[in-house]
Design goal:
Number of domains: 1
Order of helices and strands: EHEHEEHEHEEHEHEHEHH
Strand order of the largest sheet: 1-10-9-6-2-3-5
CATH class: Alpha Beta
Helix content: 25-40%
Bound molecules: 2-phosphoglycolic acid
Structural class: alpha/beta
CATH architecture: 3-Layer(aba) Sandwich
């Protein structure tokens, strides 16, 4: 796991956008796994800016979102379909038939999950999966106790997640109780995983998944089993890490190596390679 600690949320979004843009420039037909929530918003803003200034095209890109609330139609302002359209898709030159956000209105979620997984396979698998993390350590809506081998399926949301997300709804009662979500097993198949966390309310979850045991109680901890994960944190989110100083030293050594064109990771953070 490459743990990168930056000063603030703005630097996190810049670095994340640099990594995503770097991939799309190297591979214009890249398959991106996308996330919703407050954390990736500024990153999407940066990507839109790069597109507007003529530096980045999404014309060949395919996307798959992690999850959706069950019961919300795409026209609902709190649906993740709506979120993606509003905060990214409508601002860039991506083709709408290549944007996949799970449906909150499927009849048979067992079958729907299977089809969503198949669509990911048909697209060649996910090159880069963007993730946030819940304060309960979830990735996508894989709540504590989710199988670390799980696939796209229905999941009941915890009270903590519903409370965290109630800030976007008029009341807690309006927050759906079920979601459809990629599984932990689905996420682990992405070639590169980029997890962003900002703010002090994520410090506990960050420490648990980076330094704690691999456990279904903190589903993000399964990322320890993946060979290429980049975790980008702002200082408040990194505050509880016991080995914080070590990660800073590793990162400095890594940047030094990159200047000599040697690399441990498959690609550097730059957009030139
Ligand atoms: P947030 O959500 O980015 O709004 O904090 C992250 C998550 O729940 O995965």
């Amino acid at each position: 796991m490459r743990v990168v600690i930056l000063k603030n949320a703005e630097e996190v979004s810049r670095r994340a956008a640099e990594i995503i843009a770097g991939l799309v420039k190297r591979r214009p037909t890249a398959v991106l796994g996308l996330a919703t929530g407050s954390t990736p918003l500024a990153t999407y803003g940066q990507l839109i800016e790069l597109h507007r200034s003529g530096q980045l095209s999404f014309a060949g890109v395919t996307t798959f979102n992690l999850d959706e609330y069950v019961g919300l139609p795409p026209s609902h302002p709190q649906s993740y379909n709506f979120f993606m359209h509003n905060h990214l898709f409508r601002h860039v030159d991506i083709s709408s038939d290549r944007c996949h956000v799970p449906s909150g209105l499927a009849d048979n979620y067992y079958e729907y999950g299977r089809q969503y997984e198949q669509a990911i396979q048909n697209a060649g698998g996910i090159d880069l999966q963007l993730l946030g993390i819940g304060s309960d350590g979830h990735i996508a809506f894989n709540e504590p106790g989710s199988s670390l081998a799980s696939r796209t399926r229905l999941k009941a949301l915890t009270e903590e997640t519903r409370r965290d997300n109630s800030r976007f709804f008029d009341s807690l009662d309006e927050v759906p109780k079920l979601a459809v979500t990629m599984g932990v097993g689905t996420i682990l198949e992405a070639r590169h995983i980029l997890l962003l966390a900002t703010g002090a309310n994520k410090a506990g979850a960050v420490r648990s998944f980076v330094e704690g045991p691999v456990t279904s109680q903190i589903t993000a901890s399964a990322l320890q089993l993946h060979p290429w994960v980049t975790v980008i944190l702002d200082e408040p989110a990194a505050d509880w890490l016991e080995r914080r100083q070590y990660y800073v030293e590793v990162e400095a050594a890594q940047r030094e190596l990159e200047t000599k064109n040697q690399r441990y990771y498959p690609v550097t953070f730059g957009t030139k390679d």
